[in-house]
Amino acid sequence: MTVQPNSIEARDAAYQLHSYTNARKMEAEGSLIIEQGDGVYVTDNTGKKYIEGMSGLWSVAVGFGEDRLVKAATEQMAKLPYYHTFAQRGHTPAVELSEKLIQMAPVPMSKVYFTNSGSEANDTVVKLLWYRSNALGKPEKKKIISRIKGYHGITVASGSLTGLPYNHMSFDLPIPQVLHAGCPHYGGFAQDGESEADFVARLARELDEMIQAEGPDTIAAFIGEPVMGAGGVIVPPEGYWKAIQDVLKKYDILLVADEVICGFGRTGKMFGSETMGIEPDIMVMSKQLSSSYIPFSAVMMNDRVYQPIADETNRIGTFGHGFTGSGHPVGAAVSLENLKIIEERDLVGNVARLSPLFLERLNALAGHDLAKEARGIGLIGALELKQQGDAAGTAGAAMSAACLERGLIVRNLGDTVALCPPMIINEDQVKEMFDIYAAALDSLSF
Ligand code: PMP
């Protein structure tokens, strides 16, 4: 790719610093400019059409160009484009959405707090946990255990929770209150001859030892994605979440489920917590909540979390936290309509119905010469490719480029190449997606 002077690609490189991008490479090569979307497809500025095999960033559940969301946004814009939720003020869309989310929760929940991104939501979680510990007269109970390869965002606190090197390198992260426990990727971290059951038992034992070494009274919470997404689509082995929860219960440590990717159907049930048998005290939601038509996110908490916090706001006089956009009426209206679409069209059922085909096609590629492992659940999956020599990520980048050339957008996370299509996808489109994916894989040579 070379950049034509004054083209949109050249202007993009001239004026923007892009996320997860090598800025120097982008200055030389430009970017891919997407103009339009319709269903599971997007079109670039040259008119080339792609299957959006990643739903954008794991997020456009109902697909692109959904008129009902456009209408919900337009109507709300016309009626009340903005209001806030500070100082005992409210508006109907945020009330209705909080009520709806509490009703949908897979375990009893008490309150919803609205934010604008997954990172903001997780940053808020850290602050809620610290505030709560102070409220309980336990100022030393501040550490949070996350996991190697977990992804929870990129702000100072949420970026610390994230357990991936690029999110720490040169940013002076993580902050000292965050610890990282082992990653539940059996194929990646099992010791020689270790069975899955032994692997799970070891992870639970190591967590127990970490808690003992740090002092159980210093740990506020454990946070995890039911199924890890950006860390490379890692589905934990059978029994993992039960073993982890047993340890947390023993030490009275809260559990936070980061449902930012798993939430609203991705794993074949409404929440990843249901699929994985997790009983969280806090749930974090974004992405498929609004199908990312508008930035929106939420933190849901149970009474164990809410009640001491409410007492503390009363003692201090106010809850000194809030974003201008918390519970934005347009975001709330779009999210409500999005949840209606997910329910009315039974998109969670669609994920469950198509998952066997999706996993069969994915697993069929595990035997390919270049493949190391296939992983997936529901309609989220990835193929990990064998590393080429010392250059980690080369195979993944080549696969991503080969897919793009053939009209499929995937996401390469190192040498792992992920798929997470819109939940409205149909059987023919799943086949079309894997035909391209398989052809791209076959085309690679190193
Ligand atoms: N948590 C999880 C599980 C995520 O996948 C992401 C985003 N990929 C985030 C948090 C952060 O969300 P955002 O990019 O909206 O800040």
Automatic annotation (TrEMBL):
Q: Which cofactor does it need?
A: pyridoxal 5'-phosphate
Q: For this UniProt record, give its keywords in alphabetical order, as a comma-separated list.
A: Aminotransferase, Pyridoxal phosphate, Transferase
Gene3D superfamilies (alphabetical): Aspartate Aminotransferase, domain 1, Type I PLP-dependent aspartate aminotransferase-like (Major domain)
Kindly indicate where the leader peptide sits in this chain.
none
Q: Does the keyword Transit peptide apply?
A: no
Q: Which Pfam families match?
A: Aminotran_3 (PF00202)
Record bears the keyword Transferase: yes
Q: What family does this belong to?
A: Belongs to the class-III pyridoxal-phosphate-dependent aminotransferase family.
Family matches, as PANTHER family? ADENOSYLMETHIONINE-8-AMINO-7-OXONONANOATE AMINOTRANSFERASE (PTHR42684)
Q: What is this protein called?
A: Aspartate aminotransferase family protein
Q: Which organism is it from?
A: Thalassovita aquimarina
